[in-house]
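Appendix C reproduces, verbatim, an entry submitted by the partner laboratory led by Prof. M.T., so that reviewers can inspect both the input and the predicted structure.
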Amino acid sequence: MWFVCALLTSLGWGIADIFYKKGSITEEKYSHLKICVFVGIAMGLHALFVLIFQNIDYNPINIIYYFPVSFMYFFSMVLTFFGLKYIEDSIASPVENSSGAITAVLCFLILKQKMSMLSLIGVILVTLGVIFLGIFQAKSDSDNIKKVGKKLAIVGFLMAVCYSIFNAIGGLLDAYYLDIAVSPLKNVNENTIELVANTSYELTYLIIAVIFLIFIKIKNEKMKWLDQKDKFLASVFETFGQLMYVYAMSGNAIIAAPIVSSVCVVSVILARIFLKEKMTLKQYIAIFSVIVGILVLAVAEVL
């Protein structure tokens, strides 16, 4: 079951990436905060549905206990929403999803989960791919860089790198929190721990989304709700992916994390088809290295 959930996570988040990019408007100052508002509303509605229709005996104190995980995930998403205004999704997604490799390493080092030699090779491929992708991005003269400028393009790339780091820390914490034997979450059992964790995250996101909405109103920035279909669709697929992700991570975190990271394959393909993004041969080679590394990790851990 966790394996299917990991694949569904990749699909949901891969589709969401495309709509995130379409909704990240360079000229719109607070587009990244507006995306957060939509995601927060979608997640909040799902959390309310769970609380009303599913008997999980939810204790609101879990919002506080789970906050370290929620914060890492939320903060990483704000960074990527901001960065997507200045970088191609074809580049951002592989870099961001290298977080799966980082999570695997952290689970190995800190939680003492096992890692094979093949897994180590996968991690090396991902790391080298990200490093060279950063170098090629800095030297690139793509249409996107001509549009936003080299400095902002580099900022966008760095936001993707920061996302991978904070998201990986969130994945490590999730692996710990979803271990029923040591989890600090209250009123949970093996059947409810995933939903309790996800509900805590979604309620946290809703609270922050309301704060962002108030901030946007104070700045006299118009939301234009009916013209935000890309942000809305991104929030729906993000919420679906997040729900699947929690079940995947609770099943086998050190395997699920790299598989989930294959979302970049979906993102790169869709970005090339629907967003018409173009890159240099060197960038494609670096991205290929990241993708191969991620797939090697997935295969290695399944074996």
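The mean pLDDT is 83. Additional entries are available on request from the coordinating office.
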